[in-house]
Structure formats: C-alpha cells, structure tokens
Write the structure tokens for this entry.
Amino acid sequence: MPAPAQFVEFVDTHADKFIQRLADAVAIPSVSGEAGRREDVVKMAHWLNGQLNSLGVTTELRDLGKHVMDGQELSLPPAILGRMGDDPKKKTILIYGHFDVQPAFKSDGWDTEPFKLVIDSKTGRLIGRGSTDDKGPIMGWLNVLETHKSLGLELPVNLRFCFEGMEESGSEGLDDLIVSETKKGKEGWFDGVDCVCISDNYWLNDRTPCLTYGLRGLSYFKIVVQGPARDLHSGMFGRAVHEPMTDLIALMSKLVTPDGKILVPGVDEMVPAADDEEKKIYNSLDYSIADVEDAVGGKIAISADKATVLMGRMRMPSLSLHGIEGAFYGAGAKTVIPAKVSGKFSIRLVPPQTPDKINPLVVKYLESEFAKLNSKNQLSVECLHGGKPWVADIKHWNYEAAIKATQAVYKKQPDLTREGGSIPVTLTFAESLGVNVLLLPMGRGDDGAHSTNEKLDRSNYIEGTKLLGTYLYEAAAISA
Amino acid sequence: MPAPAQFVEFVDTHADKFIQRLADAVAIPSVSGEAGRREDVVKMAHWLNGQLNSLGVTTELRDLGKHVMDGQELSLPPAILGRMGDDPKKKTILIYGHFDVQPAFKSDGWDTEPFKLVIDSKTGRLIGRGSTDDKGPIMGWLNVLETHKSLGLELPVNLRFCFEGMEESGSEGLDDLIVSETKKGKEGWFDGVDCVCISDNYWLNDRTPCLTYGLRGLSYFKIVVQGPARDLHSGMFGRAVHEPMTDLIALMSKLVTPDGKILVPGVDEMVPAADDEEKKIYNSLDYSIADVEDAVGGKIAISADKATVLMGRMRMPSLSLHGIEGAFYGAGAKTVIPAKVSGKFSIRLVPPQTPDKINPLVVKYLESEFAKLNSKNQLSVECLHGGKPWVADIKHWNYEAAIKATQAVYKKQPDLTREGGSIPVTLTFAESLGVNVLLLPMGRGDDGAHSTNEKLDRSNYIEGTKLLGTYLYEAAAISA
Ligand SMILES: [Zn+2]
Ligand SMILES: [Zn+2]
C-alpha cells in the first residue's frame, strides 16, 4: 500500500511552505553546548511543541532537571513526548529526533549567516545550522502531519514522538526518561510501541538512499605510565632512569598495525569472518574507495579491496590511537622527560563484542606487555567509558516497509549499511523497548552535519518528507 | 704554590661583608626572561660594572643590539668585558659568569621573598634567587679581587672577564661577541687568553666538590606523519584509512629500548665502550644510585650497576621521547583520528658524535622503518636544532690547578665529572679560543638553581671564594 497520490501531490505543491517551516526552525539558534544559548533551546522546544499541538499531537514537555556546564548550573531543556492515535488495530511507531544543534559562528568559515536558512537556487541547497541535523527530518514529520490534516486523511499508524534538546551535548537525562516511560506499563508514553524510526544519520554518498541497521560500540582506554616524582631534564637524566614515555610508546605500538589489525589477542578473533555472500553486500554498496578518500581528503584507504575498506568501517572493530596527556604537545622543542603520561585509545566494537567482554582482554594484554619491558615505572589501565554495538534484524517488517518506501519515492534500491560511529539512543530504545529500530536518513553524506555550511538538499527535504509518509503506509500494510 | 695565608684569613674574617655583597646582588631582580624586568637586568650590569671598576678592573659595557620578546622589541642588556693585568710573564685566565637570573615569585612556592637574601642561621643556607645561579660565583670573584686590593697583594695571573645578562634566555648575542673578540688579533679583549674558567654548574651531591670536564651535545628531531586533509571521526573512518598516529607511534617505538639502548643503527656504536679503568672512575664518584633516585623522586634507575647508571648520564648518548604535537592531549576522552601528528624526540650526544654525523643516520633509519609500515600516509623528518658535545683534557694544567686548589681548600679529592646537559657557551669558548675550558662549580647539587627556595650554602660561598683565589695561585705555579 503506497501512500495516496494526493499525499505526494500535496507535498510537492506545498514545498515552499515546508521550506519556510524549516527556515523558521533554523532561525532559532538552539545550540545545546553553549550556556548562553540555553534559552534558545527552550524556545525551540516550545516552538516545536506548538507546531505539534496545532497538528493534533497530544504532548507533554518533560523537565529533565539541571546540569553543570562551564561551571554554571543550568536547567536542561525539556524533552517533548507526543502521542497521536490510539487505534488498537493499527501499528504504533515511535519517532525520535533532536531539536538542538551544534554551535556555529559565521567566523568559523560559513559563507552565509548560519542561523538564517539560505536557499541556493542554483544548487538546490538549503543552507543553515540544523538544516540536516536534525531539524530537517523533524520538519519532515511535521510536514507529513500537516498534509494529512489539510487533506482530512487519517494516519495509517499510531504515532509516538520523542524529541530531545540535548543530543549534541550527550543526551543528558534522556536514557532515564526512555527507560521510565517503558517500564511504567499502561501509563507509559511508550507503551505498545511496535517499532522505532530515527532519522538522524546520512546516506553514504550523495546519490543513493540508505537504511542503516548497525552501529559500532566503543571502549575507551587510558594507559597511565608514571615513574619520577616530577618532570625531568633529559640532559640530566636521559639514559639514567626509565622514562615513562618510552614505556608508553612501546605499549601503544603493540595495539594495532598500520593496516588496522588489532593486536590484542581475542579482539579481532571474536568477530566471525564475513563469508562471500556478506562480502557481496559490501561490494554492491554504492560507496567506493574513491568516496572514502574524497571524504577524508587523502589517498589513504587501508586496502585496494572495496569490501575490505567498507567492512573495516562497518562490520569490523577498529582501534584508534588518539593522543597522549601529560607529554610535551606544543610547537617548538622542549627537552623534557615527562613524569606521568597517559595514552588514550579506543576500540569501536561490533557484535558480539561488548565492553564487558573486551576490556579485560585489553587490560590483561597491556599488563603482560608492560611486564616484558622490564621497566621500573608503574602502569595502570583505565576504561574511561564504553557502549555496546547495535545491529538490527533487516528482515523485520520495519525495514521491509522502509525499503518499499524508498523504492516508491526514489525508484532505487536503498543501500543497507552499518555505520562506524555510535548513536547511543538507538541502543537505549532497542534494549529498553525490545523492538526493532530503524535508522532512516533524510540527508546526504556531504551535508556537513557538524561542519560549516551545513546544508540539506531541497530534493532530500521534499522527497524525504514523502519517504517518511510513505514509510508509514508501507508499515501499516505489512502483516506483522 | 697555595694561596697566601693572609688571603685565606681575610676571606674568613670578612665573610659577613661578602655575604652582604651577595645580598645586594640578589636584591636586584635581574630576570632576563621577563620584559618588565629588563631594566633591572641593565641595572644589575651597571652595579656589577661599578664593583669591578672600584676593584681595579678595566671594563667595557658592550651593547648587544635588540631582540623581540613577547612581541615586544627590547634592548638586550649589555655584556661586560673586563681586563686586569697585562704582565706577559703571567698566565691569562678568562672568567665567565652571568648576572641574570630565572624568574621567581613568592607565589611559586617560595618560603621567603625570592629577591631578598635570607640567611638561615640554623642550616647555614643563603636563600634567594640567583644566590647559586650565578651571582654567588660572580661575587666570589669580586671577593677575591677585594681581598687582594685590601691586602695590597698582586694577582698571580692576568684576568679577563666576560659577564653576560642573557644566559637564562638563550645567551642572545654572546656567541658573536666571543668570536669577534677572539678574531680581532691584538685589539681583541680575549687576546692571549690561556684558559677559561666557568663557575655555572654544581657538585653532583652535597658532599664532594667536583670539576666538570664534559657536556653532552644535542640533536632535536621532529617526525611528521600526515594523511587525511582534516581530523577524522574514529567511528566514521577507524579501520578504513591509514591513521597517522598509528604510524607515528610505530616509528617512535623503534628508537630506544626501555633500558635506554638507542636503536638507530650506528648511534650507540659510534661511542667507544668504556674499559675497566674508565668504569672505575665512575664507580669511584661520590654519587650513588640512591642519589640519582632521590633526585628524580622515584626508584627508576635504569640499572642496578652504578657505573652503568652514571655512564648513561655522563658518557653515553641518550634518546628521550618528549611528546606529540597535533594529537589529542587534553583530559577526558576524545575519539579523534588526528590528521597530522609530529613526534618530538632528542638525542644527547657525546664525542665523537656531532649533529652532522648523527642526523643522517636518524633520518635514513626513520625513512626505512616507515617504508616497512606500508602506509599510504606521508612522512617527513626535521632536525630542529643541535649542538656539539664538549670534553676537555683533564691532564691540562687548568684542571691540575683546580684539583690542587680543591685539595688545599676542601682537603678532598674532587670528583671529575661529565654532565648530561649542555652549557653552549662552553663550546663557544673552547672552539673560538682554542684553549682549555674548566667548569669549576661553587654550589651543591641540591641548590635548586632554577627552582623555588634557591640557595647557596654559606660554607660553599666562603670556601668557594677561597677556592677561586687558590686556583689562580695554583695555575700560576704550574709551568705550562
Ligand atoms: Zn544529529
Ligand atoms: Zn646559570
């Protein structure tokens, strides 16, 4: 059951009005990471709440308490819980989005004012902070609701909404809210939810729509090596004492090879190898080695084999060395022997890896490698934070519906992708609700979500609005 | 020919007056590293010049031009050239010292006002900035001159003086001055100099006087590895691209072992091994492994063998890893793949090593090790700066005189030591004048030259004054 023709037609004929809605949203500089913009995040919550109410959504602004930022105690912006439809014969879909944005200053290198949506008629780009991350997708849902209200159409599913204003600053308070609304039983806002749809990521490229069914987890480590009571002069003590930096660099060099193989025994081995069939999936993705190299700005792909590079990003763990705290980091030349140095690295995890399974392997390996150094310095290893990976069942009707909707709107088979990074709320929804979660992106890989000149292509916004609506109809039509 | 008994007696009976001279010098806060104190460095130059003149020394204040500090153009403080005696039958000894000091604020942790000399009658310590580095030794020379003037004694040698006010800030302008005064022929201030005596270092410990006859040189390196055009997100690109940090850490791990062996082929090998006789010298020094570990504040000596530890510091090259520029260095956890990272390390050099001989070995080794990594990132190696090592002939009469003077004053055999660090002016004197240079310290190893609560023990100041005077008599007595 594709969406009714009048739905699609209405979206096309009201495109300018929908773009104005996005412009209104972008104009509120709801930067969650700046204390001075906190009022604007709250203003954005009220603006969005007003839109939802006017389109028939029952809502509640939920206070999430206070937190400290830049030494200042601030109230967290409220989360918005919403409900539309309670028909027990319909499926119930929970929509997530965030109405806060990354900081942006024209002086960062923007060509236009970041909080004024600029429509570039030559390229079709809608340029402004939050256009693609994540105001565009939220406006897409409002557009779907407005279209139905205007046409007097009934929605094919029940909807629940969860919109937050702290995503760019760690989603403070959200996990507790989700868990509590799930646990409440018949009184919880998320009772009876059949699946979740999140639009907060991007296509792999600028050509082919995708659905994302996996995210990597993370274990972040700090290796501390210390010896002398204070920094030493290398002239005075070089070759007289064990230097913490020598030991730390030796340890850090034993973690990963230049081509990405993780040397901690048991880590790579925990992941089943891809068979030929799975490799085919990666080879068929519309994402080439050249796309990867374009994106990073250097011809440094880890392999000449496309499947190897894409699997390295999507279905393999990775280990990156981030830096060292406590050593000399400035420009110029300083002849110090640092007294205490802390190496930082992290491992991106894929199923069945979890921090609980990985961390002991890492700690044990580092301790045994350190013992081999025969150094009199002291080692300690800390696990700073972590998160589990997530992979969804792509045979679920939630994905089936999204695939059909993509085919209907874009006339293309979507790429089915896993992403290398984390969107922690995904795992929270999947684990606390126990339902299928779908990542259904609206924007393209070159949108520059956290960068200067963030944009959403007009066609992605308008076709994306159709996609979201069509997805609801396809979901409703499948017998679950 | 020891010093006349009346010389020694006069120094003892005038100790309080000499301490007052040191107090007057400490009271002028001649910090060369702070633009706001530049006037005080100039004031100190004029005060010292007045003292020299009143004691019969012919002097010239030499303008060294201007330089830029903290974005401000400043006149360099003048250097003082001095001359006393022109008897062709006498030896001519050049004395070097510096009248500038390190910065000091009570708030740094001083127990007393840094620029007010405090006499701790219980410990015998003279506490104040510059007391030991390097105003104490300069005052020692003035005390020797005053004693001779008061007693109507003729000096046994001709003296030349070179006092500067920028030593703690890179000795700007001094090298050129020394070279030009040497090259001038009969008109140069340093014409006819037979040897040099520098009092600007310290005993190894707080017990045994020492003479220092060697200093290590330095080659400072920067290893730059770069790949992507910008910093990357480790979730997005971990295991998809070659990461510069992985390559850099691999290279840095191949430079030195935890017990100090340098892995660059040809570097350690360039230094002849010590034979048993030389090892005996190190074993006989009054400096133990416990002294080293006390000084660094940790039980981290590189070996349980005393000679190995002391030779590591004094007569072997050492390689220290200082840090990384461009990587994450803060507290906390950041999941960045840095785009361009620069590893900093340096090698302390000993004869016959020089930067010219060592640098090509290092560059070649790093390039060949990088090639083995099979990385698509780019490597470049820079040599930031360097200096040659220096070792003096301890059989020279200059050292013979200092040994006899030490025996006469302290009733002890001095430790003959080499130091791990550099005092660049030493090499300039040795190379441009082509004469023997002696480092004859006045203070003790625990004086805290660049630290809080800098002190010079009263006995080191008074016996040190006797030592300097006696050294002149012993030098005069030896038939060169
Ligand atoms: Zn987002
Ligand atoms: Zn000094």
User: Anything to note?
Assistant: The pocket of zinc ion (ligand 1) is lined by residues A 98, 133-134, 167, 200 (CB under 6 Å).
